[in-house]
Amino acid sequence: MKSTLNILTVLFVTLLISCGGKEEKKKEGFSYDKKVTTEKTTTKKVEKIPASKKIDLKNKGIGPIKSLALNTEIDEAMAAKGADVFKKLCTACHRPDKKFIGPAPKDILSRRTPEWVMNMILNPDEMTQKDPLAKALLIEFNGSPMANQNLSEEDARAVLEYFRTLK
What is the CATH number of domain 76-165? Predict the structure, then answer.
């Protein structure tokens, strides 16, 4: 009984759709009347800048480093030590000059404060939980959190000095 009722309903709907009337179609093609509005609607296109490209030179991050002054000259011995630490502990996720699992540190100090970089190295867990920029980076890099390598402040400062040589 139900199947007969379903078949009849389908046939009835098909009949209604196919018998739409004998309206002559114009040969000009598709057209429609559009009301002309006098107001112009303008919307700004907002470019979505990835967190890794965003410049924030005010945020110092969350962690032990509150203030850090960099010398104008790069300390070559410290940079060499930082390069060694970076190669041993960081190259699993970072490449110096290109995006990998994590962002590239090349020119990082043109986008971040030295304090933020040091705090990210020393305190990545809390940074990715509380710092808005670190949270955005975590999202951009597919939720791959930065591993806490338990570096000393001295080693983290050496890595930062190495980053200053990457141009």
Answer: 1.10.760.10
